[in-house]
From TrEMBL:
EC id: 3.4.24.-
Enzyme class: hydrolase
Molecular function (Gene Ontology), one example: metallopeptidase activity
Signal sequence interval, chain numbering: 1-17
Residue span(s) of domain LysM: 436-483
Organism: Qipengyuania psychrotolerans
Origin superkingdom: Bacteria
CDD domains registered for this protein in UniProt: M48C_Oma1-like
Cofactor: Zn(2+)
Pfam families associated with the record: Peptidase_M48
Keyword Protein transport: no
The protein's name in its UniProt record: M48 family metalloprotease
InterPro entries: LysM, Mito/Outer_Membr_Metalloprot, Peptidase_M48
C-alpha cells in the first residue's frame, strides 16, 4: 500500500477507458481517434492505480517485446502507436485498454520462462482490445442488476482498491463491478487464439500461450494451498481472466493447428534480461509476510486472522476469508478520530444510510483508536460494517473497513488489536526479494537450488512453479533457472 501515491481522477473515468466505446466490427479494425483519446486520458490514472510504471533496462525490454507483438494485431502498423508499461505490482496481472496501451506486472513477468511467453501474454491482452471485448462486457453489465453499496465494498476489497472518499454509488457499477467482471469463456478463448496468431506472425513458438497458462494455473494452485484455501480462483491473472487451467489444452491445440510450434522462444535472452527484477512486495508499499502486513516506511504492522489471506494493493491492503472481508487504508485526518470514523461511514451512505449506533474510543498498543459498527441490509442479507481507526500522528490516521455477516463483527477483533508501531530496527530488517538467474551446476538438483529460495516454507514447490517444472522434472547442468533471494 503506497500512501504517497494518489489517484487524481475518478475510478469512473478508468472504468470508461477499460470498457472501450468503439464499434465491434472484428478483430482487425485499427485504433480509432476516440479510442486513442480514451487511452491517453486513462493511462496516467491506471499507472497510479497499479503501482506505477517501472523504468530501466527491464522495462525497456518488456516495452520492445510488447510493441513488436502488438504490431501483429493490425490495430496499428507502427510500433510507436503502442505504449507498453511494466507495472510495479506484486500480483500476477496483465491488461490492455483502447488506444494501444498494454500493461503487465513485474510479478507476472517473473513467472514467465521465455520471451515467447511474454509476447503471448501481451498478445492475449491486445487480442481483447482488438476484439472489443471490454465494450461487450460493459454492455452486459448495464443490462444486468448492479452491485449494491456493500457488494461494491466487497468487490473493492477483492480488488485491493479503496473506494473510500469516493461515492460508492458510482463505484458499484462504473468502478468496482466493471473492473471485476470476468470475460466470458468464449472471449478468453478468442483472445487466446488471437494471441497465438500474433505469436505465429512474429516468429515465436506458438506453444508459449499454453505453457504460460500452465504456469499461471500452477501459481494459482500454489497460492491457494499457501493461503489455506480449497480453490485457486483468487488471485488470478487479472480478476477479469477466469480459470487459466481450463484453457491450457485448448491453447495447445490451437497452436498446433496454427503452426509455428518450431518458432523461437529466446529463453536465455529473456532470463538474462529479467535477472534481478523485484519479486513480491515492494517494501516502499509494505510487505505481506504470512499473516503479517509490515510497512517499514509507515512504521506499522498488523496480523490477519487465521484462515484469511491478504493482497497488498497500491492504495489499500485487502484481507479476505470465508467469514468476512476487510481493507486497510487511510483518509483525511483533522486530529479527531471520532470524526474520522464518522466520515468513513458517511462515504458509504450514497444508496442507504450507514450509521453506527455509537463511536467508541480506546487505545491499541499505545495508539489512540476509535471504532463503530453499523447494521445494514444488502439484498436479503443483513451485514455488519465496522470501521476501526488509529492515530499515528496529529495529522495522520489509518483505518480498517470490515464487512461481515450480521452478528459476526468480532471476526476481525484480533486483527484490530494487533495494530502496532514498529521500531527503526524492525523497519530496517524488511529486505526486498529479487529474482536471481543462475546457471545449474553439475552437482545441482531441484532440491539444492530450492533450498536457496528466500522463503521459510514450500521452497521446492515455489521453485518448481517459478521455473515451470512439473512435479518430477529435474534440472540440467548448464540450464538457466530462477531463484528468489533477499537483496542483491
Amino acid at each position: 500500500m503506497s500512501i504517497t501515491k494518489t489517484l487524481a481522477a475518478s475510478t469512473a473515468t478508468i472504468a470508461l477507458a477499460l470498457s472501450g466505446c468503439a464499434t465491434i466490427p472484428g478483430a482487425s479494425a485499427p485504433i480509432s481517434q476516440n479510442e486513442a483519446q480514451q487511452g491517453a486520458e486513462a493511462h496516467p490514472q491506471l499507472l497510479a492505480e497499479f503501482g506505477g510504471a517501472m523504468t530501466g533496462s527491464q522495462a525497456q525490454y518488456v516495452e520492445t517485446v510488447g510493441q513488436n507483438i502488438a504490431v501483429q494485431s493490425d490495430l496499428a502498423n507502427a510500433r510507436g502507436s503502442f505504449t507498453v508499461s511494466l507495472l510495479n505490482s506484486p500480483v500476477n496481472n496483465a491488461f490492455a485498454i483502447p488506444g494501444g496501451y498494454i500493461y503487465t506486472t513485474r510479478q507476472l513477468v517473473s513467472l514467465m520462462n521465455n520471451e515467447a511467453e511474454l509476447a503471448g501474454v501481451l498478445g492475449h491482452e491486445v487480442g481483447h482490445v482488438a476484439a472489443r471485448h471490454s465494450q461487450r462486457r460493459q454492455q452486459a453489465a448495464q443490462r444486468n442488476s448492479i452491485l449494491g453499496v456493500l457488494g461494491a465494498i466487497a468487490s473493492q476489497a477483492l480488488l485491493g482498491g479503496t473506494g473510500l472518499g469516493q461515492q460508492l454509488g458510482q463505484l458499484s457499477l462504473q468502478g468496482s463491478q466493471l473492473l471485476t467482471l470476468k470475460f466470458s469463456r468464449s472471449q478468453e478463448l478468442e483472445a487466446d487464439r488471437l494471441g497465438i496468431d500474433y505469436l505465429n506472425r512474429a516468429g515465436y513458438d506458438t506453444r508459449a500461450m499454453s505453457t504460460v497458462l500452465a504456469s499461471l494455473a500452477a501459481q494459482n494452485s500454489l497460492d491457494a494451498q499457501l493461503m489455506g484455501r480449497d480453490n485457486a480462483r483468487l488471485p488470478e491473472w487479472a480478476s477479469t481472466h477466469p480459470d487459466p487451467a481450463s484453457r491450457v489444452q485448448t491453447a495447445l491445440s490451437v497452436a498446433q493447428q496454427t503452426g509455428g510450434t518450431g518458432g523461437v522462444t529466446n529463453r536465455d535472452t529473456f532470463l538474462t534480461r529479467i535477472d534481478g527484477i523485484l519479486y513480491g512486495d515492494d517494501p516502499q508499499q509494505g510487505v505481506v509476510e504470512g499473516r503479517d502486513f509490515i510497512h517499514p516506511d509507515l512504521r506499522l504492522q498488523f496480523t490477519a486472522p487465521q484462515g484469511f489471506y491478504m493482497v497488498n494493493g497500491t492504495r489499500a491492503v485487502t484481507i479476505s476469508g470465508q467469514s468476512g472481508k476487510a481493507q486497510f487504508s487511510l483518509g483525511p485526518y483533522d486530529g479527531n478520530l471520532q470524526t474520522y470514523v464518522g466520515n468513513v461511514f458517511n462515504a458509504l451512505s450514497e444508496q442507504q444510510q450507514v450509521r453506527p449506533a455509537s463511536i467508541q474510543t480506546t487505545t491499541v498498543n499505545g495508539l489512540p483508536a476509535a471504532y463503530g459498527t453499523a447494521r445494514v441490509t444488502s439484498g436479503n442479507q443483513n451485514l455488519d460494517v465496522t470501521v476501526f481507526a488509529y492515530e499515528f500522528a496529529n495529522d495522520r490516521a489509518y483505518h480498517f473497513l470490515a464487512l461481515t455477516p450480521a452478528g459476526q463483527s468480532g471476526t476481525f477483533n484480533s486483527m484490530f488489536s494487533s495494530m502496532r508501531k514498529i521500531s527503526a530496527t524492525e523497519a530496517a530488517n524488511v529486505i526486498p526479494r529479487h529474482v536471481d538467474v543462475v546457471t545449474v551446476g553439475s552437482r545441482d538438483t531441484v532440491r539444492t537450488l530450492a533450498a536457496k529460495m528466500a522463503y521459510s516454507n514450500a521452497q521446492e514447490a515455489r521453485f518448481r512453479v517459478l521455473n515451470g517444472l512439473s512435479s518430477n522434472e529435474e534440472v540440467r547442468a548448464g540450464q538457466k533457472v530462477k531463484i528468489v533471494v533477499r537483496g542483491r
